[in-house]
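Need tokens for this chain, all 211 residues.
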Amino acid sequence: MANFQTSFNLIEFLEFNSPENALEKNPGERGLTFMGIYQLAHPHSKIWDLVLKEAKKYLPHLNNKEKLWTIPGKIRGKIGKKLYSTPEALEEVQKIYRREYWDKIRGDDIESQKVANRLFAFAVNAGVKRSSKLLQKIVGVREDGIIGKITLGALNSIPTPGVVSKGFDLGMESYYKGLVINKPKYKIYLKGWLNRIKKIEEFERGKEKGL
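Here are the structure tokens for all 211 residues:
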């Protein structure tokens, strides 16, 4: 069966391979984002207690988690780098990714790691329902966006899961290109999105070589 840790390592490879950028303040947001976890979406996560604890080393007057977004960029970089290698912070991040994405795509019940990798990565980037519908389209079952016994049965009975993986790559590419057609302002992101698909294969080749 597919392994969550392997798929999470893929997300790290795709999005969080620069520890200095692990803690971000995105334009227009009143809250920080740590390894893809947005503060206002998960306000009670222990991540923000850890951020505040580190921030007070540089800004002793800072006592309010709601004001973390005011931390200067240089200090955010130092905090992000520290927490990126802090087991407690990483454990919390993984817990959220497992709950919000992996469990919803039924990752533990998928036999092919390569299929699980793509389903998980696309769910993180474009949403669980959209990713699930793409899988259902590929395996030929009703596209309701909910991974259940019928979808899993259809997927796991396919003798060549590589066909599903390839179909998923093509489906992701089609989605990103269609997004740009409908919203031309997103064209600046297209190269990065398409490169993301190639990097999934790069990650898997590295795993196969034991890297």
